[in-house]
């Protein structure tokens, strides 16, 4: 059971981390465009 829980935990954090950077970049680009 420990082996099964390990891969699941590693897979979950990797997905959110990858999705977070693109999402943060979008708002930043929009904010800079409004400021200009």
From TrEMBL:
<feature type="compositionally biased region" description="Polar residues">
    <location>
        <begin position="1"/>
        <end position="12"/>
    </location>
</feature>
<feature type="compositionally biased region" description="Polar residues">
    <location>
        <begin position="21"/>
        <end position="36"/>
    </location>
</feature>
<protein>
    <submittedName>
        <fullName>WW domain containing adaptor with coiled-coil</fullName>
    </submittedName>
</protein>
<feature type="region of interest" description="Disordered">
    <location>
        <begin position="1"/>
        <end position="36"/>
    </location>
</feature>
């Amino acid at each position: 059971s420990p082996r099964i829980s390990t891969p699941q935990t590693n897979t979950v954090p990797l997905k959110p981390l990858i999705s977070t950077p693109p999402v943060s970049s979008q708002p930043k680009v929009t904010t800079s465009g409004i400021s200009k």
